[in-house]
Design brief:
Layout (H helix, E strand, L loop, with lengths): L5 E6 L3 H12 L4 E4 L14 E3 H7 L11 E11 L4 E7 L10 E3 L2 H14 L3 E3 L4 E7 L2 E7 L2 E10 L6 H5 L11 E10 L2 H7 L6 E9 L7 E7 L3 E9 H7 L3 H9 L2 H4 L6 E11 L10 E2 L2 E3 L8 E2 L4 E2 L1 H21 L4 H13 L1 H8 L3 H5 L7 H14 L9 H11 L4 H14 L1
Parallel strand pairs: 1-2, 1-10, 2-7, 4-12, 10-17
Antiparallel strand pairs: 3-6, 4-5, 4-6, 8-9, 9-10, 11-14, 11-15, 12-13, 13-14, 16-17, 18-19
The structure holds flavin-adenine dinucleotide (FAD).
C-alpha cells in the first residue's frame, strides 16, 4: 500500500513546529508532526520568558488555558563584581495583563499543552521518532525518512531546532561554528510560592525576570538569568560555546560559582534543586540565517537561527511562533496553487521580511559584534559595582564627588575615555 501523502510533514514539535502545524491543521490541511522526544517538550528547555503577543495571534485567549507559571511584571538587570552587585529594577503591575508582556513558562508542560492543541486542531503527532533524512525527487524535497519508513509530503517544514540536521541535509545550512551558538545550563529550584512572592516583592501570580552581567561568566560572552515560576526558580547561565571551549571551563562549575555569589545565594536560599538541563541556542542573528526555503522545503525557528539576542533580550519563542505561522501561510498558498516549488515557497521569506522576524534581526545585526567585547563582562560591571561602593561608603575620610570616584575607578580599571566613547558608539548601533 502507498503511504499517505501529507500536505506537510513537520519535523520537531517545539514552538515553531507546533505553530506551523496548528495553523495548517486549523485550515483543514493534512499535517504530520514527527518529534524525537518521548513527548513534545521532553527534551526542550529555555530560560524562560515567553512573550504572549505572537502566540495570541495563533491561539486567542491562550492564557486562559495554557500552563503558564507567572505574569512577568518586574524586570531586573544586575551587574556583578566578585562580591558586589548593582541592580536596575523596573516593576509595573500593568505589565502583567494578558496577553502582551511575558509569562514564565516551563517547557515540558507548555510544549505538551501546545502539542495537545495541535492534535485537537486535527494534526497527527508521532512522538519518540527521529527524522533521519529527506526524501527527494530530483531537486525537490518530497518527504522525510523516520524510523526506517518514508513519509511523503508536498512540503517538509524543518522545525528541528538549533543546528538543524534537515537544513543541513537540504544543503541550506552548515553546522554552526562554536562562536555562533551559546550553551545554556539551568537548574530548576523548588521554593514555596509564598517565599517567592515575599522575596521578590510580587503579588499572587506576578513574576520577575532577572538578568546578570559580569562575574558569573568569568569574563566570557554571556550572562546569568533567573525567572520565577509558580513554585520554583529557573536559574542558569548562557555562554558562547567558543569562549567556554577556549577557557576550558565546565558549565556546571560556573553555575555553582554563580549560585554562591552573595548577590544570588540569598535569592535561592532554602530552595531544592529538582532538575538540571542544558541546551544550545543560536546567537549569530541575521548574519547566519540560511536560505529559508527550497523546492518542497521550509526552515523555521531555531533551525533557521531566528533568535534575537541583544544582551538584554533573548527572544526565540516569538520568532519561532511567527516563523511557524508564516510557513503555514505559505504551505496553504502552495496547496491553493498546486505548486510546492520554490516559486511559491519564496513567499515565506517575503512574509518574514514584512514581519518583525527579519526586521528585528536586521535592526540588531551589530549586537553580536558588540557583545563580543570582554569589557562588558569584566571592566564595566566592576566599575559600576566599585563606583556604587564608593558612593555608599562612609569611612570618616573627606568625601569625593561622583566624577572623582569615576575617574579613580576608570584609572584602576585601565579604562580610557576613548574606550568608553568607542564602546558607547558600538552600543548605540547594537542595542
Ligand atoms: C538557555 C536558554 C534560554 C532561553 N531563554 C529564552 C527565553 O527566555 N525566551 C525565549 O523566547 N527564548 C529563549 N530561548 C530560545 C528558545 O528556547 C528557542 O528559540 C525556541 O525554543 C525555538 O523553538 P523551535 O521550535 O525552533 O526549536 P526547539 O524548541 O528547539 O524545538 C525543536 C524540536 O525539534 C525536535 N527535534 C530535533 N531534531 C529532530 C529530529 N531530527 N526529528 C524529530 N524531532 C526533532 C526537538 O526534540 C524539539 O522538540 C532560550 C534558549 C536557551 C537554550
Amino acid at each position: 500500500m502507498e503511504p499517505t501523502k501529507f500536505d506537510a510533514v513537520v519535523a520537531g514539535a517545539g514552538p515553531a513546529g507546533c505553530a506551523a502545524a496548528y495553523a495548517l491543521a486549523k485550515a483543514g490541511l493534512e499535517v504530520l508532526v514527527i518529534e524525537r522526544g518521548k513527548f513534545p517538550g521532553a527534551k526542550n528547555m529555555f530560560g524562560g520568558m515567553l512573550c504572549g503577543s505572537v502566540l495570541a495571534q495563533l491561539i486567542p485567549n491562550f492564557w486562559e488555558e495554557a500552563p503558564l507559571e507567572r505574569y512577568i511584571t518586574r524586570h531586573v538587570i544586575t551587574f556583578l563584581s566578585r562580591e558586589d552587585s548593582f541592580s536596575i529594577d523596573f516593576q509595573s503591575p500593568s505589565f502583567g495583563k494578558p496577553p502582551y508582556n511575558g509569562y514564565s513558562v516551563l517547557r515540558a508542560k507548555f510544549d505538551k499543552w501546545l502539542a495537545g492543541k495541535v492534535e485537537e486542531a486535527g494534526a497527527i503527532i508521532v512522538p519518540g521518532l527521529l527524522v533521519e533524512d529527506l526524501l527527494w525527487d530530483g531537486n525537490q524535497v518530497v518527504g522525510v525518512k523516520a524510523g526506517g519508513e518514508d513519509f511523503p509530503a508536498s512540503v517538509v517544514i524543518a522545525a528541528d531546532g538549533v543546528n538543524s540536521l534537515l537544513a543541513q541535509k537540504a544543503g541550506l545550512a552548515e553546522e554552526l561554528s562554536t562562536e555562533y551558538v551559546s550553551l545554556g545550563v539551568k537548574e530548576l529550584i523548588q521554593l514555596p510560592s509564598e517565599i517567592i512572592q515575599e522575596r521578590f516583592n510580587l503579588e499572587d501570580d506576578e513574576g520577575v525576570t532577572q538578568l546578570f552581567d559580569g562575574f558569573c561568566t568569568r569574563g566570557m560572552h554571556g550572562g546569568g538569568f533567573l525567572y520565577t515560576n509558580k513554585e520554583s526558580l529557573s536559574l542558569g547561565i548562557v555562554i558562547q560555546l567558543s569562549a567556554l571551549r577556549r577557557m576550558g571551563v565546565k558549565p556546571a562549575d560556573l553555575l555553582e560559582e554563580f549560585k554562591s555569589h552573595p548577590g544570588v545565594r540569598n535569592l535561592i536560599k532554602g530552595g531544592t534543586v529538582e532538575e538540571y538541563s542544558a541546551h544550545l541556542v543560536p546567537n549569530a542573528g541575521i548574519n547566519k540565517v540560511p536560505m529559508l526555503y527550497k523546492d518542497g522545503f521550509l526552515v523555521v525557528g531555531d533551525a533557521a537561527g531566528l533568535v534575537l539576542t541583544t544582551g538584554i533580550t533573548l527572544d526565540g519563542a516569538s520568532f519561532a511562533f511567527a516563523s511557524g505561522m508564516a510557513a503555514a501561510e505559505t504551505v496553504k498558498l502552495a496547496k491553493q496553487n498546486g505548486d510546492p516549488s520554490r516559486k511559491t515557497l519564496c513567499n515565506y521569506e517575503k512574509l518574514l521580511k514584512e514581519s518583525f522576524v527579519l526586521r528585528d534581526l536586521e535592526t540588531f545585526k551589530h549586537s553580536q559584534f558588540f557583545l563580543d567585547n570582554p569589557r562588558l563582562y569584566t571592566t564595566y560591571p566592576e566599575l559600576i559595582c566599585n563606583l556604587s561602593r564608593g558612593l555608599f561608603t562612609n569611612d570618616g575620610k573627606p568625601r569625593k564627588r561622583l566624577w572623582q570616584l569615576a575617574r579613580t575607578e576608570m584609572g584602576r580599571q585601565k579604562l580610557s575615555i576613548l574606550h568608553v566613547a568607542v564602546d558607547g558608539f558600538l552600543g548605540r548601533r547594537a542595542i
